[in-house]
Write a structure and sequence with these properties.
Length: 677
């Protein structure tokens, strides 16, 4: 086990550019899993590095007089216990409970006592002990912080750690060198700003070192950079220090950082206080923040420094500390930043709260009068699932239709809209065909009032794509288009029984026909007062508590009788004839009183039965397309069948498809020749 632990320890040290000799100088030890767990009941039973802490004079750092020397552990393996597995981020560093955060002074590489008293000497601050140790080894005096906020302790009321007090900060150049992901991590940005302000109050001149990205590395630390640079590490790091951004004059840029985020793809700026406010970089500089100024430093030919006022917006766009994200995303229920992406979900419209939901249930009971009992259950589960599982794309939508006005179809949509808040919108037919689709931006629940697929197949196909697509391209005026996850679920209302063109095997639409008239007018007045007085919060809680154990969001929509009626109503005369042909072929395949016995027919032969006098204008090809829509297969895979008399044709299987799909050309020809006799 000791050998195993040693191998893990040396590998970890090597990844930071440190050796076993360095570990001895730094007084770093490695502990087996057993010894790690023995230090404290809260420590995991995994191998670790024990990082001993010392003050600026090389003395062990106690947390208080008489206490054990302060140390931190760096786990060498990821803990696999249940608690560790349920953490959002694996625990890597631990220290004894109730101990004060402490600055890390790497030993044997720097004369810390002399440096603390000499403000002319620059100082680097980084996050992490091993990073600081590697930088000190390369000749750069570097303090390590156990975390980006580990220069203070709110728990103990400390705005500045006692271990940092011995340093004379007055007029000292201090370089803050945190990991490269600070650009996409608001918490780290805030920590950098607050640390810089604390140092400036103590008279220090602060600079920000921006580490470059390395190939195939998501986050670059100071040790990563120095190891990657190899023999040129010192020279390359000096170049970064010389290019470091001075933070003393950056207040206007910090102010912009508090409000805006730059999105690298597609290249736009979003206002964090108003997520709907998105502008291009040009509009940001020339209009939105045109008045803001920043004092920019420049080096003159004689070596002196000059300052001139420039556009703060333009400077912010070039600023290494600019808050940014790789792209926009829409992730209901998640934090504002998700894996380096900026989440534009604005939050729920109301908070769930137990209360009276009887008006909502009474309205639904009325609207579902004479419907199948399971239909209302399915609809409620459909409403509840995206609330219990935020961001779920249901792959089914709901259609409420009925010829009576004022029944409350739309009122159900508005009730759910109160829960979704800014994530809800209402659209009409024109919105579907607009070149710009701002209506879909940051939306979870959309109600289409008299939005229909009508009898146009193009519209129907477009709606089906909207219901199931996984990604949504937002095309808004004056800003670049961008793609986000599509989390929209659709609720449609209509007055018309043929509002949607539906295929026989449609999976996407739940259709409910409202057969009753409106309730008493007083009910709707009382409903509006209830809804505005907390009713939406009560419905929210009711739906969060609803049992969904029997509901599958990816399954086809519940098939109602109302849907069957809409399918029938939406068919053309030819479509209805084809369905009747398939349902009762013996009744349709007749010439006078004679029933045709053959199972296979060409589209021309069937056209003679449908329109013997050619009055409808239907063509054989048109009839063939309708047969294909109905799922009718052709014998021999659609290849022509040649008969003994030289005639040939492509034959549709009207009867016994299981037999003729496997039949040979000879068997098919024999059947047709026999039927013709």
């Amino acid at each position: 086990m000791r050998k195993n632990t040693r191998a893990l320890a040396l590998a970890k040290l090597a990844s930071s550019g440190l050796s076993e000799t360095d570990a001895e100088a730094l007084k770093i030890d490695w502990l087996s899993a057993k010894k790690t767990a023995a230090l404290h009941p809260g420590f995991k039973a995994v191998p670790s590095l024990r990082l001993a802490y010392y003050d600026h004079r090389g003395r062990p750092l106690p947390d208080w007089p008489g206490a054990e020397p302060f140390f931190r552990l760096r786990y060498l393996q990821t803990p696999t216990d249940f608690v560790a597995l349920t953490d959002k981020k694996p625990v890597r560093y631990v220290q004894l409970p109730n101990t004060v955060p402490t600055a890390y002074y790497p030993q044997n590489y720097t004369d810390w006592a002399g440096l603390c008293d000499t403000p002319d000497e620059p100082l680097i601050i980084t996050e992490g002990e091993l990073k600081a140790a590697k930088a000190c080894k390369e000749g750069f005096p570097t303090l390590g912080l156990g975390g980006v906020y580990n220069w203070r302790s709110h728990r103990l009321g400390l705005e500045w750690l006692p271990s940092l007090e011995p340093i004379n900060w007055l007029r000292r150049n201090v370089y803050l060198c945190f990991d490269s992901d600070f650009r996409t991590n608001p918490m780290v940005c805030h920590a950098l700003r607050e640390l810089a302000e604390q140092l400036q109050r103590r008279g220090a001149f602060c600079h920000l070192v921006a580490l470059p990205q390395l190939p195939e590395v998501d986050k670059v630390g100071l040790d990563d950079f120095l190891v990657h640079a190899g023999s040129r590490a010192a020279d390359m790091f000096r170049e970064l220090l010389s290019d470091a951004e001075p933070l003393g004059l950056s207040r206007p840029l910090w102010a912009l950082n508090e409000k805006y985020v730059y999105i690298r793809k597609p290249g736009l700026i979003i206002d964090q206080t108003d997520l709907s406010n998105k502008v291009s970089p040009a509009a940001f500089k020339d209009h939105l923040e045109a008045a803001a100024q920043y004092q920019e430093r420049s080096l003159k030919k004689d070596g002196s420094i000059s300052y001139k006022p420039v556009s703060a917006a333009a400077a912010w766009l070039r600023w290494p500390l600019r808050l940014e994200a790789a792209r926009l995303t829409y992730a209901p229920g998640a934090e504002r930043f998700v894996d380096g992406e900026f989440n534009v979900w604005p939050g729920w419209g109301c908070a769930p709260k137990s209360g009276d939901v009887s008006p909502f249930l009474e309205l639904l009971d009325h609207l579902f009068t004479d419907a199948e009992p399971a239909a209302l259950t399915w609809f409620l589960q459909w409403c509840a699932y995206p609330l219990q599982h935020p961001g779920t794309k249901m792959f089914s939508s709901v259609v409420f239709h009925g010829i009576r006005h004022g029944t409350g179809k739309s009122l159900i949509g508005y009730t759910l809209g109160k829960i979704y808040g800014q994530n809800f919108t209402e659209i009409n037919q024109l919105d579907l065909h607009n070149n710009f689709n701002e209506w879909a931006e940051s939306k979870q629940f959309v109600m289409g009032d008299d939005v229909t697929g009508s009898n146009k197949r193009h519209d129907a196909d477009f709606l089906k794509k909207m219901i199931t697509q996984k990604e949504l391209r937002i095309n808004a005026k004056y800003t670049p288009s961008y793609v986000v996850p599509d989390c929209i679920n659709y609720f449609f209302t209509s007055q018309h029984p043929d509002s949607f063109f539906l295929e026989d095997d449609d999976r996407r639409f739940f259709v409910h026909e409202i057969l009753v008239g409106p309730l008493e007018e007083q009910f709707y007045t009382d409903y509006a007062n209830w809804l505005g007085g907390g009713g939406a919060s009560a419905v929210f809680q009711y739906l969060l508590d609803l049992d969904l154990s029997t509901f599958n969001p990816a399954a086809p929509a519940y098939r109602t009788l109302a849907k069957e009626r809409m399918i029938d109503t939406g068919r053309s005369d030819l479509g209805s004839w084809v369905r009747q042909l398939l349902a009762a072929p013996d009744q349709v395949l007749r010439v006078g009183d004679v029933t045709l016995e053959q199972d296979l027919f060409t589209s021309k032969e069937l056209l003679q039965l449908y329109d013997p006098e050619g009055r409808t204008g239907t063509t054989a090809n048109g009839l063939g397309r309708e047969l294909s829509r109905a799922g009718v297969r052709q014998a021999l895979g659609g290849r022509p069948v040649r008969l003994a008399n030289g005639a040939q044709g492509r034959y549709y299987i009207i009867r016994h498809p299981e037999k003729w799909l496997r039949a040979s050309a000879r068997q098919i020809a024999n059947h047709l020749e026999k039927s013709c006799k």
